[in-house]
Amino acid sequence: MLFYVSIKVTIPPETDPGTLEALKKEEVAHAAELEAQGKWLHVWRVVGKWANVSIFDVSDTTELHAILTGLPLYPFMDIEVTALCEMHPPAAKAV
Amino acid sequence: MLFYVSIKVTIPPETDPGTLEALKKEEVAHAAELEAQGKWLHVWRVVGKWANVSIFDVSDTTELHAILTGLPLYPFMDIEVTALCEMHPPAAKAV
Amino acid sequence: MLFYVSIKVTIPPETDPGTLEALKKEEVAHAAELEAQGKWLHVWRVVGKWANVSIFDVSDTTELHAILTGLPLYPFMDIEVTALCEMHPPAAKAV
Amino acid sequence: MLFYVSIKVTIPPETDPGTLEALKKEEVAHAAELEAQGKWLHVWRVVGKWANVSIFDVSDTTELHAILTGLPLYPFMDIEVTALCEMHPPAAKAV
Amino acid sequence: MLFYVSIKVTIPPETDPGTLEALKKEEVAHAAELEAQGKWLHVWRVVGKWANVSIFDVSDTTELHAILTGLPLYPFMDIEVTALCEMHPPAAKAV
Amino acid sequence: MLFYVSIKVTIPPETDPGTLEALKKEEVAHAAELEAQGKWLHVWRVVGKWANVSIFDVSDTTELHAILTGLPLYPFMDIEVTALCEMHPPAAKAV
Amino acid sequence: MLFYVSIKVTIPPETDPGTLEALKKEEVAHAAELEAQGKWLHVWRVVGKWANVSIFDVSDTTELHAILTGLPLYPFMDIEVTALCEMHPPAAKAV
Amino acid sequence: MLFYVSIKVTIPPETDPGTLEALKKEEVAHAAELEAQGKWLHVWRVVGKWANVSIFDVSDTTELHAILTGLPLYPFMDIEVTALCEMHPPAAKAV
Amino acid sequence: MLFYVSIKVTIPPETDPGTLEALKKEEVAHAAELEAQGKWLHVWRVVGKWANVSIFDVSDTTELHAILTGLPLYPFMDIEVTALCEMHPPAAKAV
Amino acid sequence: MLFYVSIKVTIPPETDPGTLEALKKEEVAHAAELEAQGKWLHVWRVVGKWANVSIFDVSDTTELHAILTGLPLYPFMDIEVTALCEMHPPAAKAV
User: Where would you tag: which of B67, F34, G52, H14 has the fewest CB atoms within 10 A of its CB?
Assistant: First the structure.
């Protein structure tokens, strides 16, 4: 089941740079794992912001919540979730 | 080059049902063509609305404008475009 | 899987009263059916508005979209969907 | 009498983790008690946020205010209250 | 139990002036009755708008909904309801 | 002359609890005085928030500004003022 | 007593041009009269809009309401009123 | 050339009171000077806020920017500028 | 003197296509003239919308108002004007 | 390819003045370089704010993201990017 997830990251100015670097590395590793599992289907960065738009493919909403709240940078994320539905055949999608 | 495009369709209540059906059919054919050309990379419907979120892959912004304003349902669409950027390697995407 | 759905109904002033009454009756019958099936889990009316807040229990987002767009009054509804997750045990819910 | 209550929790980054853990435990205990009393009728977590949507069943607005301001995490909550009304028979609810 | 109710009236430009005048008269009579019953406790007009802010004193939310949707001008009203609570002694009210 | 005043109080988390308690006591005393003078005509607490809605009866806007900025908790208040007008006879108020 | 009034005029596209011209002429005459009486103290047009920002000097809010609702173009106006206060000496005004 | 300028002042709670008092005094002196030069044509305080609405009369936008950014309290100001135009004769202003 | 002007065009669905085509042609001719006079310095179309962002170079705000309200499509335009200032030397512009 | 970029700078009050001055100097040098390369086509300051509106001419969105996130003051910038398209001939631009 697909969800569109818009994530905006805001780091408080007083955050320790070393801690932040470590969190970013964990985030990369964590994201790679979710990607390998086919959960984090797509992610694109929004130009000019520390923000991205993503598509997650999960078995249910509880799994999505667990994934999002388990992201290393979660405490700094403002997250908006939009439920999507898939359509067949593809050519019907835009109508 | 990738763009995130959010489209909301609003049909004025007085629209002739026959005209609308014809436009929807044209929209499906048109969308299928753009999909076959690799321009309309992804489209998902938003649950509970006549709206979708899409990813377009175009050579420049002028092409994107031509595509969007050429959609048969364009006169009824409220469109928001967000510039995206691709990242390599994928595991770096979330940071 | 649970979704919170906020529905606001707006009837264009020029709507034929007879047509509207017929749609309302269909809506009641349709809602009763969805309720009997355990899909439309809860619905409460918002005081002072033609609006309600609901909880739907569906197997996936595609089913939810089909249910919402199939409501007789759907063309007059402004719908917002929020993905929810269930928690166990209940006492953990508020934290 | 029913009220829809939307609660968003925001913890200032400088909060002491021990204090926060203690407050969370108190919140769980407190919520369980209100649930047992039939006051906190429903609570669901919003996916991707530290937020929930709830239904409270109280005898009046003063009781609701006392309950909400008495929650251990209240100082960190942004709360929106919407008055609901119950309808009979259920099948009439959606119209 | 007290509720703050903010009402904004918008009359579609094509409304028949005679119908509107009749509705206004009904509204005055209806309001006077609710006032006499002690339900519509206060009402003040907002300067520069066809809008008012009111305090209703009702036994429950279902009664409030019945009162508001029963107003002759209800179809033209945009209504926002805010639950209030009374405090004793009065001098404690502002804190 | 009447004004509707909506007040939202936000206390910075680092405020000293003793200072806050003292300010609250001053606020109660100050409010009682304004109430006794007939200036602070009504005040109701908004459920679920440290906020209230009030009606002030003042001789002019300069007096209202002096009253509001003189409240002990003023530095923590976000205040919105709406000019109201009184109508006679009461039954005409709602139209 | 001074009030800042922001007025935005929106004419429905189907308005009869002759009726509109007549209303505009009445508006000019009416405004000139209020200006001569010292009630409509200042008015400036907002660049690029049919909108203006004004200062009214009235004896009370009831008078202001009567003036604003008596403007010939009032049915097409969206009006926002902000209560102002005068300060002496002038040099103290900006602080 | 006239500009409407809306200024909202927000002082961070940790500001040193002595520094603030000094800045306020500078602001008064500075404002008096701009007033004497005919640049700061009007200023009124908004009731219930540390905010004002002003009319500036400047030779061009660069001068206005220099004036606003040169105000002693500028670092604490949130400023919105609206371009105005003067009309002749006055009686034409409101149309 | 420079102004940033954001223009959004909305054509009511019932507009006569012939009238609209004629207005568009007038708009092109009118725009070309303003461009030749050096008044309409820049104009770019916003992707996915009938909207553009422009820079106007005018001698004062009254001239800008006359230009904008004189555009053939003005009745269908929603216009926002932002005052800009030029800086020298260019390298100082971004700070 | 052109993009409209709106930049608002907010400096946290506790920022060290020396660090800020150094960053501003770097920003000027950096901006001058981008200007010399023809990437930062236009920049105008918004009157009354530390904000500017800019036009960037870049080969793709990835380059734009690299430029924006590489600005010395980027950590203090709130950036909005709007995709533009160029039109030929110029006289067609406004329609």
Answer: H14
